[in-house]
């Protein structure tokens, strides 16, 4: 929830251990094939579907003042 509130963005997860590492691996593969004009969408088309974990709390974008 904290990440969602801080960045005011929804957070998605996948049911895979070390999903952050998996995302980095997909970016690395994309970097390797970038010269062949393969899009990132094509690289990750077989990746597991993400699911919505949390959305920003209403009013979280407002900064509290002392």
TrEMBL record:
It comes from the Eukaryota. Transmembrane segments: none annotated. Keywords: Kinase, Transferase. Signal peptide: none annotated. One of its GO terms (molecular function) is kinase activity. InterPro entries: ATPase_NBD. This is XYLB kinase.
């Amino acid at each position: 929830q904290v990440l969602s509130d801080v960045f005011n963005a929804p957070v998605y997860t996948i049911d895979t251990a070390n999903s952050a590492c998996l995302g980095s691996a997909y970016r690395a593969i994309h970097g390797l094939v970038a010269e062949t004009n393969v899009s990132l969408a094509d690289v990750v088309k077989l990746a597991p579907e993400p699911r919505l974990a949390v959305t920003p709390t209403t009013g979280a974008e407002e900064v509290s003042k002392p």
